Amino acid sequence: MTKEMLEDYQNMVQEVASIDRMLERLDGRLYAPVTARGDGMPRGPVRHADELMSGWTDEKEAARALYEEKRQRLLSDLLVIERAIDTLPSRERAAMRMHYIEGLSQAEVAERMHYSKRQMERIFTRTVARLCK
Which residues are within 8 A (CB) of 99 and not within 5 positions of it... i.e. 6 or more apart? Predict the structure, then answer.
């Protein structure tokens, strides 16, 4: 694990949520019924809906697979971070969770834990070095 992964935790969570929304929309389009246009204009010969949608469905399935793969990589990284934080002593674990997972600033963490900002900086520096080795 790297410090960059820790710092990117919140972005990874947001990206997973974004991918989940994208997958829901994609599934909605993928499995939505095919409807004819209602403008009354004549069309060419009518073809079977499966024939019309086969290429489009293949593209959607490929896109879905890529999104799902990206989602799984992100979830794996998030799990690595969570497990690493869980190995820490309680004081460091609480500080790291508040800062990296809950998104509080170091000053806010220091205030909640009743430490000075300088003491909290030392705790973070030492803990991040321990996690990243």
Answer: 105, 106, 109, 124
Evaluate whether 19 touches 74 at the Cβ level (below 8 Å).
yes
Asked if residues 95 and 109 have their Cβ atoms less than 8 Å apart, the reply is yes
- Separation CA 63–CA 12 (nearest Å): 19
Q: Are 71 and 22 in contact (CB under 8 A)?
A: no
CA pair distance 18, 71, nearest whole angstrom: 10
Q: For the segment 58-73, what is each residue's pLDDT rounded down to a tens digit?
A: 788 888 899 999 999 9
Q: Contact 96/127 with Cβ under 8 angstroms? A: yes
Q: How far apart are CA 106 and CA 87, in angstroms?
A: 20
* Alpha-carbon distances of 11 from 16, 53, 126, rounded to whole Å: 9, 35, 24
Q: Tell me: the pLDDT tens digits for 24-46?
A: 887 776 665 555 555 655 555 55
Q: How confident is the model at residue 84 (pLDDT cuts 50, 70, 90)?
A: very high
